[in-house]
Specification:
heterodimer, A: about 120 residues, Barwin-like endoglucanases, 4 helices, globular, B: Rossmann fold, three-stranded parallel sheet, 12 strands
Amino acid sequence: MAERRFILIAGRTAKQGRQINVGKDTADYEEIVTTLTMHPEDMKALGVSPGGTVRVRTEYGEAVFRCQEGKVPAGIVFVPYGPPTCRLMGGDTDGTGMPTSKGWEVEIEPVEAVPSGPEDPH
Amino acid sequence: MGGKPACTLGEVKNRADLIIYWGGNPAECHPRHFTKYTLTPKGKFTPNGRKDRTMVLVDIRETPSARAADIFLQIRPGRDFEVLTALRAIIKDQPVDPERVAQTGLTLDQLRDLAGRMKRARFGVMFFGMGLTMTRGKYMNSSAILTLAAELNAFTKFIAMPMRGHGNVTGADTVLRWTTGYPFGVCFNRGYPRYNPGEFSTIDLLVRGDVDAVLVVGADPAATMPQPAIEHLKRVPTIVLDPKVSTTMRIARVGILTAATGISAGGTVYRMDEVPIPLRPALRSPYPTDEEVLRRIRQTLAARTDE
């Protein structure tokens, strides 16, 4: 299946906020930050089933996520912030001090792989 | 840009009848905001609580906060600046091209309705989140929403307030402001404070490799910053103070566990409306406070300089 382009929005969720205070070296935290939410129609078009894995690539790096259906507009994917999203983020701040951390153009393809963990050496 | 039209959250609770959240998801990120300050509390001039208020949510996706909204305006990603600018024109009765408005994902009627509600409100407030400030446009989006709020004061009382993040980020900004005159990105290497975002801001310093040692206090840049910045944290001696073993502590040269502020350490935290709140620790911690560790490092360094 060919790659498709999406807009990636990274953000926070209540579950992630709770888990940050429990600890980041837990399997729960790793699952939260490696789960990507996509529109059901986009998942069909991409040929990935719920729970399947996808590789997300930007011009700066790549990471592997587990895919789930959710309430996001078609063409947009959502991931909670974490070490995998760091690998996709560029270091340029356009002179503002703030990197662009939402609204990245990404390429996504289904893969047979395990999601990227915090220790992934990419 | 005309400064920041501000108020306290107490004023919002007692007076605000139009609440707009823009690029923020308080239902998940600030779960007590609705019930303590903005929607359900009964205030002096909002005696019926929720019934006296209208809530509008502007976002690019239908977050759990949309369930609490009376009006949900779903805009296209990266179009915030255009929507804000169109609203500024509409409230001043300037002509706006419906086709260009359509590119934002909204209709001109929706924007006219919102502009009308803004002008008719007795006390309006726009809370803006990282969906506005960390997307395309960045500080220009912040400037646009603050300008819109300032201009609405020609018609009614209107303010804009950032939905600040977890911990005490408002405190860091506020204290830096009253000690140096600048909120962040402050450089002291000439013996006096200089401010230049993009040059002295943390990510830029790390990505360019301008710093040869890093002290991280109560933050976890290895879980939030771009990878090139994280790579530099790995290269240089990085010292981390944190109540828990964080992602950054794992890549740091030195990690010092400290007491959790507000739980086992006292201090002052600034609420997002910049009201300082004193904290009393409820529990005792076996670990020292951040303040104690920093003071001991400073004393040791001073003693070595004297030798």
